[in-house]
Design a protein that fits this description.
The complex is a heterodimer of chains A (about 100) and B (about 170). Chain A has 3 helices and no strands. Chain A is mainly α and about 100 residues long. Chain B is about 70% helix and about 0% strand. The chains are: A mainly alpha (about 100), B mainly alpha (about 170).
Chain lengths: ~100, ~170
């Protein structure tokens, strides 16, 4: 293994922080969801890197990453359905205007 | 600096740069395309970690399915074009968000080299795919079944939430 483990961890950390910025700074609800996807992928890089470097003979690490993938897909599907439903009702997906519950 | 290092750096740069463009570009459709490139870079990272099945699953699930879903969502909501002009893609706290991001990144990068991970120099077993398949219907059969129920629930829930309601039907 020529590449040190910390390189993967650094890439994952930077990707996670880019995702945080996307979630915090975007107004568009689809953009917020994209940020969440980036964060979930950063976590998955960490999981797979730890599996490869710490315990490559045990498949549990890969299985865990696979379940994260499944949950992320389910999250994306429901999130996008909600966004489309909100757009149908209000023709607006600005996260700052989705405040029906507050009124 | 071997060839492996260079390949790693190239793919990491592709992943991180396109992720950065994804969260900073003002055009939502371009953001979706940058997201696809970034997720492809993550799949390449998985391949470099010798997790072949995960790399393939990443390509199919993310670069295939989720990317198309997001592009559809961008198009169905007209990229937010009606309500969100390009100059209003970022909220008033974008500067604060950048500060929070940089602080988090700083903390993470300080923490990463702090631990001394017990790295094993073991090779990945040749039959890792067989083992993974057996583990998914053996040790992990309960989470596997729960995941299938979760996917079914997400499928039905998404259809119910996003379906078009007829006139006179109560909004629910």
């Amino acid at each position: 293994m020529t590449i040190p483990l910390s390189w993967y961890l650094i890439v994952a950390a930077v990707l996670f922080c880019i995702g945080i910025y996307g979630v915090l700074a975007r107004r568009n609800a689809v953009g917020i969801l994209m940020g969440v996807e980036l964060m979930l992928n950063a976590v998955n890089i960490n999981l797979v890197a730890f599996w490869r470097y710490l315990n490559p003979t045990d498949v549990a690490g890969q299985a865990f990453a696979l379940f994260v993938l499944v949950v992320a897909a389910a999250e994306a599907v429901v999130g996008l359905a909600l966004i489309i439903s909100v757009y149908r009702n209000r023709t607006d997906i600005d996260a700052e205007n989705i405040n029906l519950l507050k009124q | 600096m071997t060839l492996t290092h260079i390949i790693f750096i190239v793919f990491a740069a592709i992943t991180l740069l396109s992720a950065l463009f994804c969260v900073t570009t003002r055009n939502m459709f371009h953001a979706a395309l940058y997201l696809v490139i970034s997720l492809f870079g993550v799949a390449a990272t998985f391949a470099m970690l010798e997790a072949s099945f995960l790399a393939a699953a990443q390509l199919i699930v993310y670069v295939g399915a989720v990317a198309i879903l997001i592009i559809f969502a961008v198009m169905l909501t007209r990229g937010g074009a009606g309500s969100l002009p390009a100059e209003r893609q970022f909220n008033t706290q974008a500067g604060l968000a950048a500060v929070v991001t940089v602080v988090t990144l700083f903390i993470l990068l300080r923490v990463v080299p702090f631990f001394n991970y017990p790295v094993q120099d073991a090779a990945v077993p040749v039959d890792i795919l067989t083992q993974l398949g057996h583990a998914l219907v053996g040790d992990f059969v309960l989470p596997f079944e729960v995941a299938s129920v979760l996917l079914l629930a997400a499928l039905i829930g998404a259809i119910y939430i996003a379906r078009e309601r007829r006139k006179g039907e109560v909004e629910g």
